[in-house]
Amino acid sequence: MRKIAVVTGTRAEYGLLYWIIKGILEDTDLELQLIVTGMHLSAEFGLTVKEIENDGFHVAERVDISLSSDTEDAISTCMGRGMIGFAKAYEKLRPDILLVLGDRFEILSAVAAAVPFRIPVAHIHGGESTEGIIDELFRHAITKMSHIHFAAIESYKMRIIQMGEQPGNVFCFGAPGLDSIQKLNLMSKEDISNKLEFPSDKKIGVVTYHPVTLEKDTAKTHITELLEALKISVDVYWVFTHPNADTESMTIITKVKEFVDNNTEKGKMFISLGQLNYLSLLAHADLMVGNSSSGLVEAPSFGLPVVNIGDRQRGRIRAKNVIDVQECKKESIIVAIDKAVKDDFKSMLKGMENPYGEGGSSDKIVEKLKSINLDESLMKKRFYDIN
Asked: Which of 295, 326, 294, 297 lies closest to 310, judged by CA?
């Protein structure tokens, strides 16, 4: 039986991995080894490991990196703790394949620790670009330490090959996060508004704003400008979700909390919504504002207008639902929001195609993890030169 270790460190990442984890668990030829780390083990971010266990998944190992601060020193220290913790986990579990997704610092630690153990690494969402954040560097480093690659878009697949990876080990199956849109029974607008307790007679805006980690000391200025813009939109009720645990994330959380506490009629904030609530919210929202990758990957499937702010997602392929605001300035954001809520813009998005696929990738990934040959040619990587 082939042992597949899956690492998850954030609530959003877990949602994208859910159907893969479930598929591995239910496959009689595979053994699931779920390793939980990062924000899942932090009370400040909702201790979402409980949600994982409530979903019926056994946590094989917990790698606690003591994620309690968002300074540069704290993040680097967490990466070091992660290396130590993952090494202990691999020594115990001895997986046949390590599966990771994305570009966060916890994932870099997980993959780097796997190298001395000669564990083949399968990486989801490689080849992408987010020019404004440190994850840009982490993602490509993870790609070079990985052996099996699951790209979301054909152009991302070609970029991985351009980085010297063997074409036979690079697969384009789409974004696995879209599977939940097909497989979950999403709630009605009335049900989700009752559950989350927001008014059903107002337009609903979903807001997630993460720090732009390659810009130093900009989070306070940016979130202040954004909140001032949101305050102007009197007919929109704003549903905020917490940012990821990045440098300066606590600044954003503090400012948003002040905003909702002082403007209870304008919105509310959630630490973690969970996949069903979050996707049901997107299905019935009128717009999304911020700089989350969800605006580029999941939102197009709902024809949802997205106001994407700043450089965090610069370089990622986007559909026509995205309105880019280059600088995080109140006036520019207001103009973009006004465009996003107009009927003519929304009507233009009806029937649009999502460049990240239409779902079904999780089953393909599980099948490839089960069938791929784990021989010497996979482990001894050769640089592929494009002639």
From this structure: 326
Residue type at 43?
A
β 322-325/306-309 pair status: parallel
Task: Decide if 104 contacts 82 (C-beta within 8 A).
Answer: no
Task: Give Cα 209 distance to the centre of its chain.
Answer: 13
CATH 3.40.50.2000 residue ranges for the chain: 2-174+360-379, 187-348
For 187-221, what is each residue's pLDDT tens digit? 999 999 999 998 888 899 999 998 876 677 788 99
DSSP 157-215: HHHHHHTT--GGGEEE---GGGHHHHHS-PPPHHHHHHHHT--TTSEEEEEE----TTS
| Residues 226 and 209: beta-carbon distance below 8 Å | yes
CA dist 256 and 236 (Å) reads: 16
Q: How far apart are CA 161 and CA 384, in angstroms?
A: 7
Residue linked to tokens 């600044």: 251
Q: Which of 142, 81, 92 is nearest to 117 (CA)?
A: 92
pLDDT digits (tens, 9 = 90+) for 292-335: 999 999 999 999 999 999 888 888 999 999 999 998 999 999 99
List the structure tokens of 179.
């599977």
Could you tell me which of 32, 126, 134, 33 has the C-alpha nearest to residue 78? Answer: 134
Show the CA angle centred on residue 332, arms to residues 327 and 337, nearest 5°: 120
CATH of 2-174+360-379, one of 3.30.56.10, 3.40.50.1010, 3.40.50.2000, 1.10.10.10: 3.40.50.2000
Q: What is the pTM of this model?
A: 0.89
Distance CA 207, CA 310 (A): 14
Tell me how far apart the terminal alpha carbons of the chain are, to the nearest angstrom.
Answer: 39
Residue 376 to residue 41: CA distance in whole angstroms? 36
Q: Hey, what CATH topology would domain 187-348 get? A: Rossmann fold (3.40.50)
CB 8 within 8 A of CB 40: yes
Main-chain dihedrals φ then ψ at residue 313, nearest 5 degrees: -100, 10
Q: Are 263 and 292 in contact (CB under 8 A)?
A: no
Q: Are 279 and 297 in contact (CB under 8 A)?
A: no
DSSP 386: P
